[in-house]
Amino acid sequence: MSDRKYRLVITLKSDLCIGSGYSYAGIIDSDICYDEYGLPYIPARRLKGCLKDAAELIGLSEDKISDLFGNSGADKVKGIHIDNGYIDHYEEIRHDIGKLGKEFRKYITPQSILGQFTAVKAQTKIGENGAADDNSLRYTRTVNHYSPLNFEEMKFTANVAVPDSVCKETFENAVKALRNIGMNRNRGLGSVRCVLEDSPEKLPDRKITYMENETECSGISDEKAAYTLKYSVKNVSPLVMSTNNDFKTEKYINGRSVLGFFAGAYLRPDARKAEDDEFKDIFLRNEVLFGGLYPAVKKEEGTDIYYPAPSFINRLKKTKKYVNVSKDVPNKEEECSEYGITSEYASGNGNQPKRLKGKFVCMKDDGILVKEPATDIVYHHTKKSKRQTSADGDLLYTTEVLREQQIFAGEITGSGKQLKILAELLIKNTPRFGKSKSAQYGTCVLADDPVIIKKSGKKRMYKKGTPVLAVLESDAVFVNQAGYTVRCDEVRRQIRDSIEIKEDDSSKCYSEIESGVLTGYYGKWNLKRPAVPAVKAGSSFEFILAEDLETDTDVFWTGENNGEGFGRIRLIENDSSGCCINEAVINEAPSDKPAKAAPLFRRILIGEARERLMQQAVNTKLNFRNAASLGRITLMLSESMSENPKDPKAAYHEFVRRIQSIKTDDTRKKAEKILRELVWKKKNADSEALDAAGLKYLPLTEELREPYNSCKEAEGSKESFETAMAALWSEYLMAVLVQEKYNLKHEEESHEED
């Protein structure tokens, strides 16, 4: 069974408030949903709920609604799959923002971007006496009706996958019936028009690359466990990976979830059955080892993969230096000189080492890189269905999610034939992991072509007497004669036997173990898996070799359920001279010139210039003595602006003409002096071109020139920086005149008090 691809286009017919559940005391009482860059979006689960309400409104039968949207508690995903609704050119704008250089980041912030797309509305409650009730003022952030990019009605687009078993016309009727979404839809907000269109987007053509001895080859053999499939995915929607806490998410995609995706993709064609030997070999008999997908960063020279932080890597609390606690860490500053290290590595006086809980580490030649996957807290509201009778049907709750647009990479080990089957499944199917895969969560795309690599066969020698560390890169399950075990000595022994290590006296070696409980959910049974004690990833065990150890890999598997990704372990030499661990240098990539987001960036930069001019206006004094003259000049400026609302140059010429018509010499000269000292450098307030580099206030905004020109060149705009700044002359001058009005009023009140 396959899915048909469509896109749901939502055009705003009014301002919109898709509530996120967040509020900021005294500033925003009801906020909208927006991403980490400040770009608004419509959550998929909200869309799916509104579409279901629309389907019920037009009288679709319960069977058709069930086919469209699935049923709660079903043993498999059923119905449509819908993604978040994003603004036009969302991916290109995100790319432009992500590639911003330092010269931009000072001005282009998430809040400045959000301010271009949204507005804050105030509302209050009117009491019976016609006056506002006390403490009833509320502020709501809304998405603007019109886009700041093209000044047309804002559009959001959501990708939709509709099963072949669902009639397109049935779903399209529900789409057409959806006219209002979000908060306050009976008070003028949330009016929309929805249209279902064929999806024009095509995923990049991916192919399988075969590698042998670091060179590309044309084919593979069928040797068992001789090949590794390496691939990476990008989550285009947030991920919710199950943990023991229903409101938390795991920070990586575990091997069990990876196996589940491939098993579901394998069985999707009706010709394949779970009873087939091929299915059992790949998914049930541990012939294929499904590793997890870990946070990664793609670079030109390759992909850096971050694994759960080993327990032996700690960070000092105050100085933030990384240390290897399997070695002696000096306590006092005086001891540091004996070790040949700086005093920053002294662990005394409250500078004690701390575990890197929740962090992930990438080992590099020049040190380590540490990161933590980005997460968000999302609010959800469950609506009681018609079949529910319990009192807790309506529930507001939060959940932690892995933020979208992150890279996760991993590998699968097996025979060449088996990995070729899995690589083809990866290319032909959309990877989805975790909870709520039918709406808002779980959708990923391949970040690169999958690569099948034959093991090189090169041997690595660990010399006798060398201390080595065995570090768990995934959770592991161990059993002994009494059942499951997490005893350190028993786990250490099983790891030693798995790697075939002959060791000296183990009492001298470092070991640190962290235990936990492994649970999960089995969708086919619609039941939770039994709780199993497990050893957590990051647990580390040191061995001092009694004999030479020769291996063809530094990655091993230990314990039980290796086929589901449990028990992956890496061997690391621990013969460094001291406890210091360097932090690898990250070379910042050069910023790209913005393309789609260039108009947005220019508007933000002009807004920054306007803010600077307004601050300057507050501190400017004109020393008027006659309020009537000030009022007359202010009126002339206001009328000039009203007659030429979109032409600042014409407004300037009109204002010059008006002030030259003033018969009172003092007032006319005062107005000309104001123009000369605040706006225009020329001695006379003539009608020369306003967009030349002769603006008096231009130095106030000079710092914005380079960022603005970068946007201008990328977009191909002919408007110069000087022209853009000249367009602000009337706002600046009006702010100065208004401030002078309040200065005069303040002086009059001071005289009256005297």
What is shown here, in short?
By secondary structure, this protein is an alpha+beta fold. Helix content is 28%, strand content 23%.
Question: How would you explain this protein's 3D organization?
Answer:
Strands 9, 10, 11, 12, 13, 22, 23 and 24 form an eight-stranded mixed beta sheet that branches. Strands 1, 2, 3, 4, 7 and 8 form a six-stranded antiparallel beta sheet that branches. The model has no long low-confidence stretch (mean pLDDT 86). The protein has four domains: 3-198, no CATH class; 209-308 and 371-454, Alpha-Beta Plaits; 459-581, Immunoglobulin-like (Sandwich), CATH 2.60.40; 598-753, no CATH class. A hairpin with a 2-residue loop joins strand 9 (209-212) and strand 10 (215-217). It has 18 helices and 38 strands. It has 754 residues and is an alpha+beta fold.
